[in-house]
Design goal:
- The protein is an alpha/beta fold.
- It is about 45% helix and about 15% strand.
- It has helices at about 15-25, 35-45, 55-60, 90-100, 105-120, 130-135, 150-160, 170-185, 205-220, and strands at about 5-10, 30-35, 65-70, 75-80, 85, 125-130, 140-145, 195-200.
- Strands 2-6-1-7-8 form a five-stranded parallel sheet.
- The longest helix has 17 residues, at about 170-185.
- The N and C termini lie close together (about 5 Å).
- It binds cytidine-5'-monophosphate (C5P).
- Its EC number is 2.7.4.25.
- This is Cytidylate kinase.
- InterPro entries: Cytidylate_kin, Cytidylate_kinase_dom, P-loop_NTPase.
C-alpha cells in the first residue's frame, strides 16, 4: 500500500479539523492541524505583549519558540516550549488575532518549513488554508472544503459549551471577518488549488464527508 499525503483546506468552521482527524484515524495516518500552530504563536506572542504590528519582534520571538504537535486520543495536543497549550489556543482573544499574525511573511515561511518536515515521510492528513497551494503542492489528494457562512457559524455554535457560547450573529461576523482576512492577504491567501476537489459540505453530515474523502484517498494508494 502506497503512503500518500492528503491536504484539506477551506475557510474557518467548515469542519476541516473534525474531518481530517477522522480520515487520519481511518487510514492510520498522522493528523496535522496547522491552524493550531498559528494559534500557538498567537497565544505565545500575546502573552509576551508582542502585537502583529511589529513583525520584526514577532520573528525574533518565534526563534525561541519550540512548537510540538503530539497525537492524543485520535486528536492532537499542542505544546510550546514543553508547556501544553491545547486549551489556551481556542479563546475568543486568539480567534480575534490569529489571522493578523498569519499575514506576516517570515512567520509563514517558518511554519511552512516545519509543516513540510512533518510530511516528509508521507502518511499525513494536514488541514489549513494553504496546504494544497503552498505547503504540500505535491499532495496526492487535495480537498477544498466549504459550506455557507450561516452553516459554518451554526456548526461552531453547536460545538461550544455554555460558557464559551456567543450569539450566532456574532459568530457569523467573526467567521466572515476571518474569511476576508485569509482570502485577501498577500502571502499564500486562502484559495482552492487548481487540482483540489471542491467539496461543498453544507448539506452533508460528517460521516458522509469522511467517507467521500477516504474513498478518494484509497483510489490513490
Ligand atoms: O484552522 P483554524 O481556524 O484553527 O486557523 C486559525 C487561523 O490560522 C486562520 O484563520 C488563518 O488565519 C490561520 N491559518 C493560516 N494558514 C494555515 C492554517 C491557519 O493562515 N495553514
Amino acid at each position: 500500500n502506497n503512503r500518500i499525503n492528503i491536504a484539506i483546506d477551506g475557510p474557518a468552521g467548515a469542519g476541516k479539523s473534525t474531518v481530517a482527524r477522522l480520515v487520519a484515524n481511518q487510514l492510520s495516518y498522522i493528523y496535522v492541524d496547522t491552524g493550531a500552530m498559528y494559534r500557538a504563536v498567537t497565544w505565545f506572542l500575546t502573552k509576551h505583549g508582542v502585537g502583529p504590528e511589529v513583525p520584526d519582534q514577532v520573528l525574533e520571538h518565534v526563534q525561541h519558540m519550540l512548537i510540538e504537535l503530539t497525537p492524543d486520543h485520535g486528536g492532537q495536543r499542542v505544546w510550546v516550549n514543553g508547556e501544553d497549550v491545547t486549551s489556551y489556543i481556542r479563546t475568543p482573544q486568539v480567534n480575534g488575532l490569529v489571522s493578523r499574525y498569519a499575514q506576516i511573511e517570515g512567520l509563514r515561511t517558518h511554519l511552512v518549513q516545519l509543516q513540510r518536515q512533518m510530511a516528509l515521510r508521507k502518511g499525513v492528513v494536514m488541514d489549513g488554508r494553504d496546504i494544497g497551494t503552498t505547503v504540500l503542492p505535491d499532495a496526492e489528494v487535495k480537498i477544498f472544503m466549504t459550506a455557507t457562512v450561516k452553516e459554518r457559524a451554526l456548526r461552531r455554535f453547536n460545538e461550544m459549551n455554555d460558557a464559551e457560547r456567543t450569539s450566532l450573529e456574532q459568530l457569523e461576523k467573526d467567521i466572515s471577518m476571518r474569511d476576508t482576512l485569509d482570502e485577501q492577504r498577500e502571502i499564500s491567501p486562502l484559495r482552492r488549488a487548481e487540482d483540489a476537489i471542491l467539496l461543498d459540505t453544507t448539506e452533508m453530515n460528517i460521516h458522509q464527508v469522511v467517507e467521500k474523502i477516504v474513498s478518494l484517498c484509497r483510489s490513490q494508494m
